[in-house]
Design a protein that fits this description.
Shape: globular
Strand order of the largest sheet: 3-2-1-4-5-6-11
Number of strands: 11
Largest sheet: 7 strands, parallel
Helix content: 25-40%
Structural class: alpha/beta
Strand content: 15-25%
Amino acid sequence: MRIAILGASGRVGTRLIELTLANPGLELVAALVSPQSRLVGTPVAGGSVEYRPAERWIKTRSDVMIDFSTPAASLAMQDLLGTKSIPVVIGTTGFTSEDDGQLTAFATSRPLMISANFAHGFEAFRRSVIDFARRMPDATVTISETYHARKKAEPSGTSRLLARDLFEAQSLTMGFPAPEPVILIDRIGETVGINEVRFTMGSARTFFSYRVETLAAYAEGALAAAQWLVSRQHPAGRYSLANSLAD
């Protein structure tokens, strides 16, 4: 499987390159970075592939693209792709509702797998807390997250996704809008990612916790998603991790 990586110099992009180069069944064909990056023109891991800006990649043949960049770079890439049908796995977060609508429009031209969290096991964790919320719709929900100290002190894409899902699950069960979940934010050292959901039910509490130990977890999950998109030859459309687990 020939892979192009957008955001190749980032924290997850770097792990994606490492995993791709270490797997004999995968081939890195493009490592895409910002035009201003100091890495432009330098070889990736001493090999024949060089770090390049996105516009210099467009004619390179690849089976799939994996995108862990920024909302602006991600949307610019989708626009650059035009009507090309190359599958794209998008782990970039921070999209606005307007951005999200643009992604849905781009998905009419190619299969897009989009998730705020590709780490192995996260989708099962998400499903578990949604199921509990449906069964206990009157519980008070608190979501907490802990990430590394350099991450912005605002709710992550993962926490926003959980908050939306849990709000919708409780509201649907009760038949009227549930209280919005509270999101607590913490930034500590080099913490990769801790996501927790607490349900308070008066005299009892239930606590769900999901912890990512290394950044490789996000890269591994994104590669698995890419293999799912390519091996099943899915038509153009917008896909989520739930789709891959349903097969």
